From TrEMBL:
Pathway: Cofactor metabolism; retinol metabolism. GO terms for biological process: retinol metabolic process; visual perception; vitamin A metabolic process. This is Lecithin retinol acyltransferase. The gene is Lrat. InterPro entries: LRAT (IPR042288), LRAT_dom (IPR007053). Keywords: Acyltransferase, Cytoplasm, Endoplasmic reticulum, Endosome, Lipid metabolism, Membrane, Sensory transduction, Signal, Transferase, Transmembrane, Transmembrane helix, Vision. The keyword Lipoprotein does not apply.
């Protein structure tokens, strides 16, 4: 029997959506990468070793484990660890090009960065997920040690091994990703209503024609329904 192409297309599309999750917007007129805030931009005095840090991004949330002394362990797609062993190059802040190639190659690394490089100007929530795991929380030192043991190159998958899987394993002992599960449910709802899919495609394309570029809130409206509709 032939496999339904829709789940396969959905899985592939979810992987590519990471490009919108982590890619940092460039300021108008800029031709290069934006720079992270200067050291001291964040007050780390309220952070404790083993804390789970969250930073809202374009569509999803980026997660990390605070290790103390202004250091955060987090999982990031990155092609560089797969092509070179030069630790000085690898330790530099991950650029958009490195990230995109990492997504395509499904290669990532658990890396340690400063709070400034990790958050990249975004607001930080501390231990916001604890309320969901009240009876599963590990000790703060255990969470930090788990994160430190995982530092290095790893496989990447938005569905099975992303930054949220990493932090929930470290702090709660179980690798889960609620935002991925929620997004998958949304995709399923879109698939069920072919008329809504087609309407979303037309609205999205009209936005591009009229505005010249799709706003960030329109991007998922265009690409997710279009590819799933075509796959179905």
């Amino acid at each position: 029997t032939m496999k339904n192409p829709v789940p396969q297309a959905a899985s592939l599309l979810l992987e590519k959506l990471l490009l919108l999750v982590h890619i940092r917007p460039l300021p108008a007129g800029s031709g290069g990468e934006t720079a992270p805030p200067a050291p001291g931009y964040y007050d780390t005095s309220c952070f404790k070793r083993g804390d789970l840090l969250e930073v809202p991004r374009t569509l999803f949330i980026h997660f990390g484990i605070y290790l103390g002394e202004n250091r955060v362990a987090h999982l990031m797609p990155d092609i560089l660890p797969a092509v070179t062993g030069d630790r000085r190059q690898i330790q530099q802040v991950v650029t958009n090009k490195r990230l995109i190639l990492g997504v395509i190659a499904r290669t990532a690394s658990v890396r340690v960065d400063t709070v400034e490089d990790f958050a990249y100007g975004g607001s930080i929530l501390v231990n916001h997920m604890d309320r969901l795991f009240e009876e599963q929380m590990l000790g703060s030192e255990e969470a930090a040690r788990r994160a430190e043991k995982l530092v290095g190159t790893t496989a990447y998958s938005l569905l099975w091994n992303n930054c949220e899987h990493f932090v929930t394993y470290c702090r709660y002992g179980a690798p889960v990703s609620f935002q991925t599960e929620k997004f998958c449910e949304t995709v399923k709802m879109v698939i069920r209503d072919q008329r809504s899919v087609l309407a979303s495609v037309l609205v999205g394309l009209a936005s591009i024609v009229c505005l010249g570029v799709a706003p960030s809130t329109t991007l998922p409206t265009i690409f997710i329904p279009f590819f799933l509709w075509m796959a179905g």
